[in-house]
Amino acid sequence: MAASIQLNVRSIKAPFNLTPVHKQWPKPSRISCAAAAATPTKRYSITLLPGDGIGPEIIFVTKNVLKLAGSLEGIEFSFQEMPMGGAALDLTGVPLPEETLSAAKKADAILLGAIGGYKWDKNEKHLKPETGLLQLREGLKVFANLRPATVLPQLVDSSTLKKDVAEGVDLMVVRELTGGIYFGKPRGFGINEKGEDIGFNTEVYATHEIDRIARVAFEIARKRRGQLCSVDKANVLEASMLWRKRVAAIASEYPDVELSHMYVDNAAMQLVRYPKQFDTIVTNNIFGDILSDEASMITGSIGMLPSASLGESGPGLFEPIHGSAPDIAGQDKANPLATILSAAMLLKYGLGEENAAKRIENAVLDTLNKGFRTGDIHSAGNKLVGCKEMGEEVLKSVDSPILAAI
Ligand SMILES: NC(=O)c1ccc[n+]([C@@H]2O[C@H](COP(=O)([O-])OP(=O)(O)OC[C@H]3O[C@@H](n4cnc5c(N)ncnc54)[C@H](O)[C@@H]3O)[C@@H](O)[C@H]2O)c1
Ligand SMILES: CC(C)[C@H](C(=O)O)[C@@H](O)C(=O)O
Ligand SMILES: [Mg+2]
């Protein structure tokens, strides 16, 4: 299941007078000289949403990697940068301007950095950067969020888990992204019978929402190691009881996939006890959010985890699973690899361009093999680099021979 591929180029004029991200940074010379670019035969339009905090830094380097990998495979991209999150709030007063959503809908794929930051933390809900992100996911109808967590041999020592527990971990979290407690109604603030303030949200899932995410997960499990673990809280929550019933019903369509069920509290524990037991995990919106952050640390850092958000049709949304990291923003310390690997997912799942995707995955492996590490994955004996340099090293490796995919 991949987002539909639209091959026609669209030239969309940005309605905002945006300062391009990091225009003060010199363009890496490797872009023009790394390898002979193939004559473009395919053209795609990409909406870039740098967002806030480290977002512009990681999007800047990823755009260059995507551009070079594409050009070596006969692909030409047109990029359109649009405001999103806190940056959009400052510019337009809303976290997801209509122009941003409509440009995103018209693109072939969307690459997002990250949104959010201290400045907007106390805003009312509808004026929070995070609300813009939820509106974007809802607007694009990207209900299936794929979050792969793979422990690369080069980074096994960066894992917080013991080497023998972490090594060989290769799992995929399939997170439902447009339903559940994030979107359920009623929600809001009120006053209870004792006169106390209350805040409330509703976890609600309809059959069709569970069935479609279950089918995506079964399809993915079928192409992996044939094992699907559905994570829920069916011992307590009605929404989870329906979830478990429907996932079990859909299992009859996939006799070749082995289905198991696990309560989320146990799953959180099992992920750090023996993560190799997991192949594909399917879970609801909030459990997927939490478990994917947990899984990221097994791989060494949250700065390593990419994601793809796909719907039944229309462009896919590709973003790292981490946030805007305001504690390191503007310091050239961010690890861009989660975003670079999200660009590989964009090529693979969003555009069906497997060769260009492999180039990027391979370039990341090559760069790690050469010992380059940002601070979050750094250990003794490696070369500590910043976000820009890491991006430039990946660029240098984009034209290396294709080795095994990640
Ligand atoms: N998809 C998104 O845009 C997204 C996701 C999560 C959080 N957020 C937002 O980001 C803001 C900060 O949230 P948070 O601090 O809870 O989570 P975070 O993921 O931004 O940061 C958590 C920790 O991980 C580190 N980190 C994250 N990404 C990194 C990278 N690429 N390289 C190196 N270190 C990295 C940060 O420095 C921080 O110490 C909040 O406003 C939150 O709502 C946005
Ligand atoms: C920022 C927030 C809305 C978002 C989520 O909860 O989905 C983030 O944590 C993520 O994982 O993408
Ligand atoms: Mg999250």
Keywords:
10-stranded mixed beta sheet, 2 domains, 14 strands, disordered N terminus, binds magnesium ion, alpha/beta, Isopropylmalate Dehydrogenase, two-stranded antiparallel ribbon, 406 residues
CATH fold naming of the largest domain: Isopropylmalate Dehydrogenase
Helix content: 25-40%
How many domains, as an integer? 2
Would you identify the CATH H-level superfamily of the largest domain? Isopropylmalate Dehydrogenase
Q: Which sequence of SSEs, written as H and E, runs from N to C? A: HEHEHHEHEHEEEHEHEHEHEEHHEEH
CATH architecture of the largest domain: 3-Layer(aba) Sandwich
Instruction: Give me the count of strands.
Output: 14
Instruction: Output the radius of gyration.
Output: 21 Å
Derived structural class: alpha/beta
- Total helices: the number is 13
Taking pLDDT < 50 over at least 5 consecutive residues as the criterion, the unreliable ranges are 1-34
**Average pLDDT over all residues:** 91
| Distinct small molecules bound, one entry per kind | nicotinamide-adenine-dinucleotide, 3-isopropylmalic acid, magnesium ion
Principal-axes geometry comes out as globular
Give the class-level CATH name of the largest domain.
Alpha Beta
Strand content: 15-25%
- What profile does the largest beta sheet have? 10 strands, mixed
Q: How far from one another are the termini?
A: 20 Å
Q: How are the strands of the largest sheet arranged? A: 2-1-3-12-11-4-5-10-8-9
Question: How is this structure best described in words?
Answer:
This protein is of the alpha/beta class and 406 residues long. The chain has 2 domains: 41-147 and 304-401, Isopropylmalate Dehydrogenase, CATH 3.40.718; 156-300, Isopropylmalate Dehydrogenase, CATH 3.40.718. The protein has 13 helices and 14 strands. Strands 2-1-3-12-11-4-5-10-8-9 form a 10-stranded mixed β-sheet, sandwiched between helices. A two-stranded antiparallel sheet has the order 6-7. Helix 2 (55-72) crosses helix 12, helix 2 runs parallel beside helix 13 (387-397) and helix 12 crosses helix 13 (387-397).
